[in-house]
Amino acid sequence: MEEDPPTINKWDGNAVKNALDDATKSVMMNHICSKECFRLIDGRLIISSLAVGFSLFALAYDYLFPFPLSRSVLMLCVVCYFVMSAILTWHTSVVEKGTFATVLKEDPSHIDPSDVWSASSNIKRFDTVYHLTLTYKCGKTKQVKESSAALPIEKYFDVNGKLLYDRVSREVLKLRDSIINKMN
Q1: What is the rounded distance in angstroms from the CA atom of residue 157 to the CA atom of residue 9?
Q2: Do residues 142 and 118 make contact, with C-beta atoms less than 8 angstroms apart?
Q3: Mean pLDDT, rounded, for 56-74
Q4: Where are the transmembrane segments (predicted)?
Q5: What is the Cα Rg of the chain in Å?
Q6: Which pLDDT score is estimated for 2?
Q7: Phi, psi of 103 (to 5 degrees)
Q8: Alpha carbons 38 and 23: distance in angstroms, whole number
Q9: Contact of 162 with 20, CB cutoff 8 Å
Q10: Which of 116, 133, 158, 177 can pair with 137 through a Cys bridge, CB separation 3.0 to 4.6 Å?
Q11: What's the whole-model pTM score?
């Protein structure tokens, strides 16, 4: 990312957000800690797999025991599928809250739990401001520190839509430093 930053269509909000998210994740992996945590993604994958499992079970059961016999099992599987879909929606909107990167800073002695750094972002529709939040959770004390910034998109892309990685890097490192200063 640092050597060859992407060039995107500046008018495509999703492309802008994804490019800035990728740059932020790259900065976190290079300058904060290099071990990525996939717990949130794994949770989403497990919930989705369970929903698909209910669907597949309903399909197989209906194949083995055609409709009149499988009615109650089909109804149960449909209800379970929609419950899992509701849980998935809750997970993405309440638990993840736009988190796109989580990295772990392990204790060198491996006695204390790892410190967790996460980044979340959002861009409102038709807005030119990228809202970035960096969160730190101390593994030992479970204390949470957070720092946010509103970054105008035009400062981080040139006229041709090429990402200005060094500017993004400076902003992410400023957020990290402000969190570190809050801890002291």
Answers
A1: 10
A2: no
A3: 91
A4: 45-65, 71-90
A5: 21
A6: 62
A7: -125, 150
A8: 18
A9: no
A10: 116
A11: 0.81
| CA 184 centroid distance within chain | 28
Strand partners, 102: 118
Q: Give the integer Cα–Cα distance in Å for 102 and 34.
A: 10
DSSP the chain: --SS--B--TT-HHHHHHHHHHHHHHHIIIII-SEE--HHHHHHHHHHHHHHHHHHHHHHHHHHS-HHHHHHHHHHHHHHHHHHHHHHHHIIIIIITTEEEEEEE--TTS-SPPEEEEEEEE--TT--EEEEEEEEE-TTT--EEEEEEEEEGGGSB-TT-BB-HHHHHHHHHHHHHHHHHHH-
**Whole-number pLDDT of residue 111:** 80
Per-residue pLDDT tens over the stretch 159-184: 888 899 999 999 999 999 998 888 76
CB 119 within 8 A of CB 132: yes
